[in-house]
């Protein structure tokens, strides 16, 4: 079992999540640093509305997902959606994932161009 460190600064959440999910399913431990600086491509208003709608589903009186406002927990929840959560191997893989706020250590960066429109997870957390 290897411990991998990924830097989420200016990384698109979907691309970062797919790489991380594969590594978790292979049995590696993954630590993501700078989780609040990861970005979601697309129009800011549409992205925020989707997450607000998802947050309204959850709660004490209704059944549905509970989505955190904390940036690193929001990123962790997004990556959970890329794992086979209904199987034991998916739950075991999720336990090997750690998301950290800030630059505690140096990590591997994913190289790709930034989209024209995007919003960071930190900005989404502020708007929730």
Protein traits:
single chain, 128 residues, alpha/beta, Ribosomal Protein L13p, Chain: A, globular
Could you characterize what this model shows?
Strand 1 (3-7), helix 1 (13-25) and strand 2 (29-33) form a beta-alpha-beta unit. This protein is globular. It starts with a strand and ends with a helix. The protein has five helices and six strands. With 128 residues, the chain is an alpha/beta fold.
CATH fold type: Ribosomal Protein L13p, Chain: A
How many distinct beta strands?
6
CATH architecture: Alpha-Beta Complex
Low-confidence spans: none
Indicate the mean pLDDT: 86
Strand % is 15-25%
Looking across the biggest beta sheet, what order are the strands in? 4-2-1-5
Q: How large, in whole angstroms, is the Cα Rg?
A: 14 Å
Could you give the topology of this structure?
Blueprint: E1 3-7, H1 13-25, E2 29-33, E3 39-41, H2 44-57, H3 71-80, H4 88-95, E4 97-99, E5 108-109, E6 118-120, H5 121-127
Parallel strand pairs: 1-2, 1-5, 2-4
Antiparallel strand pairs: 3-6
Helix pairs in contact: 1-3, 3-5
Write a short abstract of this structure:
The protein is α/β, with parallel strands linked by helices and 128 residues long. It has helices spanning 13-25, 44-57, 71-80, 88-95, 121-127, and strands spanning 3-7, 29-33, 39-41, 97-99, 108-109, 118-120. The chain has a single domain (3-127), classed as Ribosomal protein L13 (Ribosomal Protein L13p, Chain: A, Alpha-Beta Complex).
């Amino acid at each position: 079992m290897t411990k991998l460190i990924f830097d989420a600064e200016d990384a698109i959440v979907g691309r970062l999540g797919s790489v991380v999910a594969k590594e978790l399913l292979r049995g590696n431990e993954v630590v993501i640093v700078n989780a609040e600086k990861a970005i979601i491509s697309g129009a800011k208003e549409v992205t925020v509305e989707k997450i607000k709608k998802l947050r309204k589903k959850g709660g004490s009186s209704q059944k549905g997902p509970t989505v955190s406002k904390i940036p690193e927990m929001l990123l962790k929840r997004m990556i959970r959606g890329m794992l086979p959560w209904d199987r034991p191997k998916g739950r075991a893989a999720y336990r090997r994932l750690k998301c950290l706020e800030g630059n505690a250590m140096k990590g591997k960066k994913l190289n790709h161009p930034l989209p024209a429109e995007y919003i960071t997870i930190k900005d989404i957390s502020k708007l929730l």
